[in-house]
Protein 1
Amino acid sequence: MSSIKFLGTAGARFVMISQLRYSGGMWFSINGIQFLVDPGPGTLIRAVKSKPKLNPQNLEGIFLSHRHLDHSCEINLMIEAMTDGGFKKKGVVFAPYDCLYEDPVILQYCRGFLEKIETIKEKNFYNIKGLTFEIPIRHKHSVETYGFKINSNGKIIGYISDTSFFPQLIDAYKNSEILIINTVLYEKKENVQHLCLQEAEEIIKSIKPKKAILTHFGMTMLKNKIWEKKDIISDRTKTDVIIANDGMNFEF
Ligand SMILES: [Zn+2]
């Protein structure tokens, strides 16, 4: 059994700083391999307070899509937790170049706790304990940003992190059977580099995953009660669309 636990579903700064939704990112468990994606504020507390509890020492790695705080705030803390306080050298962190070398979000002393740091780049493949994933394309966001497609027994799980819409996204994430989309905006807003609901629906209609999961909600998504719109969105896209909530455990 594989699963994705949504430790937080907050997107962008206002929902994060108000904590209207938690902001702990996602905890993947695929064929027994556990790894964490985008550890925003509150990741550690949401993990250890989960039922059943998620133990950071079981993590094999952490994927950082980009350096914005709602994704990266607890990266150092989670590295320390994953490595048993820094005493057990293990694990891999996957992060864009700028997170490591330009405006670093990972402290030098924490880097030494890790077995490996991988600088992610588009069109490259990576490996975490035998699980392979691809970075299909660089996103259009104000800082260097990537999502991934991970292979779980031949099933592709795609994660579209923060980005503006651009047509190449569709080709990049095609063949995803499960597609997670960070959908911050209810309606399109000029000069805000995030997907809106209509763009997320366009992506779903083109890629046709078996299941699409919307998460990372901004204020307008909450004001418009996005959690009540599952059926309408599923009808419009002819896809089973799931509206993530804090603590949701998605099994596949
Ligand atoms: Zn961002």
Protein 2
Amino acid sequence: MNDIPVNSAFSERIYQILSLPSPLQKLEDALFVANGLKVFVKRDDLIHPEISGNKWRKLKYNLNDAKNQGAEQIITFGGAYSNHIYATAAAGKYFGFKTVGIIRGDELNEKSSETLRFASECGMKLHFVTRTEYRDMRENPQNQLSIIHELTGLDINNSKVIPEGGTNHLALAGVGEMFEEIIYQLGSAPDYIFCPVGTAGTISGIIANSDKKTKVIGVCVLKNGQYLFNEIDTLLKNTSVSNAGRILNPANINFEVLWNEHHGGYAKKTLELIEFISKFNAEHDFSIEPIYSGKMFFAFYKYFSSLIEANSKVVLIHTGGLRNLF
Ligand SMILES: Cc1ncc(COP(=O)(O)O)c(C=O)c1O
């Protein structure tokens, strides 16, 4: 456990609303048996239908921080299809925060996507801004609230800003709890963990809370995502201490990211990917989707025999996002 104090009313509400810990499910496949692999899926997609997967993990300590500061309003950022906007709007409804979404694209409105429609129904106030305004607000952590106020006219009293994708040092603590659940459920740390990489908050949280024994393998879902390497570095430096209180030492960090498994770029699909997902979903009792988990599972099946040592325990993180399937 980390030592961040959790607001007690907030904690009680978490267990009323969310299904935690999420199950760790064995993935059966004759291919794995031949290699002596034990493969499991961490079913974070089951945490909640609207605040699913890594969204909850990254929001938890941000919302807790807001409660502890007495903030009543959460302001955050995203695009018209953002899972983070969707989950933050739902979390606001369940945990009693007003929410504001600053949306990239002043040509949009609340009917432009299912995400925006849902967010607005949850009570999220949406502000549509130009790409330049969006960048100015998002990339200026100093004076961020006053810049937001200047550009949108929003009332910023009692507000907390959560960054795009929910990724910051507080997100890493929530992801660390997922790793602790895995160790408890497996009885030991896994030899490998696979996860998708978008803004790199999830992989950074896993790296920050695992040690050298576990190799963390990220699958980047964006084209030319190599800049995220610096993002991981910055997040780890700003965190410096893991959930377990271990001082992060670069010598203990054991990870790699597969940068070329994006199938053309963010939200792009190849025929190979679509066929893989359709077959996988037909043969299993749970589903993967094409934007994050599908690309990660695809890369795992493609590379496991060359990347993974025989007789290892492997955990694949299902980060949710299943509404993208439909
Ligand atoms: C469903 C889903 N899976 C995975 C990711 C990637 O996680 P991260 O942005 O922390 O790298 C995201 C985006 O945050 C997501 O929405």
Protein 3
Amino acid sequence: MKDFNGKVAVVTGAASGIGLALARALAGQGMKVVLADVEDEALRGAAETLAGEGAETLAVRTDVTVADDVSALAERTLDRFGAVHVICNNAGVFTGGLTWEAPLEDWEWVMGVNLLGVVHGIRTFVPILLEQDEGHVVNTASMAGVTSMPFTGVYCTSKHAVLALSESLYHELALRGAKVGVSALCPEEVATRIDRSERNRPDHLKRPADAPESAEGVVMQEAITQAVNRGTPPETIAARVLDAIRDERFYVLSDGAWRRACETRLEDIRLGRNPTFSPPVETGS
Ligand SMILES: NC(=O)c1ccc[n+]([C@@H]2O[C@H](COP(=O)([O-])OP(=O)(O)OC[C@H]3O[C@@H](n4cnc5c(N)ncnc54)[C@H](O)[C@@H]3O)[C@@H](O)[C@H]2O)c1
């Protein structure tokens, strides 16, 4: 999609971080923007801020884990703006810890938001884009979706799944010859509130009081906070996404140490050797 002006974008997880930056960048191209998020107050604030900057916005409280909420989001969008051209399935949450200790509540919550949220977005919006025969789907995966690391098994699993799902979608649309593009956004550490994801964990999926909390889990939580604090500005990620939509580019990857970690993993697979642990840390060389 080359021309954004006057068209309509829907962004989930738009109240904060990468989603808010995406909404702002798309609005900056003259798009009408529908902001969807589960965090009510932050959502209203984000929509008001963008409207104050001159954007035409609609805020729809949406829990992406609930299929009916995502259907209602599409209905509200079509009622208000009559079309959807870009859908960013971006809402996501993080939790860390040892794979064998992660309580089922962690799995249900993270897979619900990070994977099923994208599934609901695809099931709801792709038929609309196909009907128009115009549009672009952006699914937020992560560099954690092209690498693997210890103490992040639940999150990495969700992001690998989003990448595979996005690749399948890409193939299907290409085989149809549809004028609907797909991009998989794989950011590195970004300065957002992802390290405070617990703020949106629903009560029924809270970790049980007796769930084990390993030292590795605590260290990982601290590492995530440090990493996002020195992370890439979300605006940089949003600019990459605009370029990818314009260029119809699928992989929106990070460079540097993360890219090398991804290449090492692909080489492990190619050679059939055991997984190399290559922490994505810049060496300065
Ligand atoms: N920040 C990073 O370092 C980083 C790196 C790679 C990928 N990502 C991915 O980027 C995406 C955006 O995260 P972020 O870093 O901007 O974090 P963030 O916490 O700043 O924003 C995430 C947004 O998702 C919303 N959300 C959470 N649960 C939801 C639900 N059930 N329904 C609707 N909205 C919900 C939150 O309210 C929040 O506004 C996520 O998919 C995340 O996994 C982030």
Protein 4
Amino acid sequence: MKTYDFDEQIDRCGTGCVKYDQRQATFGTDDLLPMWVADMDFRTPDCVFDAIRRRMEHPILGYTSLPADYFRVAARWITERHGWTPREEWMGFLPGIVPGLSFAVQVFTEPGDEVVVQPPVYHPFLHSVERNGRTLVFNPLRIVDGRWEMDFDDLERKLTGHTRLLILCNPHNPGGRLWPRDTLVRLARLCAERGVTVVSDEIHADMALGGRRHIPFASVCDEARDHSITYMSPSKSFNMPGLITSYYIIPNPGLRNRLAAFLEKSELNGGNIFAYEATRAVYLHGREWLDQMLAYVQGNIDLVARFLAERVPAIRPMLPEASFLVFLDCRGLGMEGDDLQRFFIERVKVGMNDGRMFGPGGEGFLRLNVACPRSTVEEALRRMEAAIAER
Ligand SMILES: Cc1ncc(COP(=O)(O)O)c(C=O)c1O
């Protein structure tokens, strides 16, 4: 068995890499450790390069259809990893999940309809609603015993005769929750009863931590299966989001046909040669890399938890159950809004996502990306400790 080296420091500067090359534009300075955009500073798995290299040996990169076994391979992966077997005919290619959110809003709602999101949540959820002229409705998450929970009393009130969609982040970004089965069932039943379709963004699904398992929303009950749209992708878990590859799973034929027709008429139902090859490759050969990567990330998360508890207790990490993002509760520092963000940029010199971008409930939080060598995490923690001590 090959052991992968996640300690390796790789210079990403000058590659058009958003995380590094957009520091000046985003933070107003290049002089900070970038721990924001949700991709990894780890080498993308070898099997991706092997597959792409093999394809490049052929001298023509012409129009190319999806490999015949594409969805069979993806469905097998989902069965083995998540214990749910989607049928191949439920699945279709999607050119990115963020675009897919916007498509769902356009297809399943009319201008003025209400779409519910559960902040603090991945900011494109908000944009997909607002930029399409629909009404954004917040059903904020609540912190209960140190974890984010859904507020069903609030949701019951927020689902009105005008609500058409709820966009679910499962697992949740930035909260790191793997939603438990009873929460998903309750959500499914309530939404089905009110005629609301759930769009379940499951891009972080493959990255459950600590022996936990992700539960696909559509798998939990009949109501969930029949009133949902699921989006999945290997792009985030295998560190290849630059390839742009994802897919939908929609068991309900009525919903599926509507989205498929939209994609077809917009000529958005196909990807690129390398994305096809890479997706097949990781689902067939990527498991070992993924599991080693997750064990390494768990080590980084444990380090953050230990270090902050011992040396910077004013910052309290919300420990993720999935993925590599740690939402830091910085409210104990006594700084707010721009002051907090400025302090971390100018004094700590670590670039993180400002919690406010994720909507209500994100104030006072920063999102730290720990998918990087441990030495980078150590450096970020040292900088936090030093800057806070001398404040
Ligand atoms: C919840 C969630 N959805 C979607 C994406 C991005 O999806 P894509 O790159 O396929 O557009 C991210 C990236 O951070 C994410 O966290």
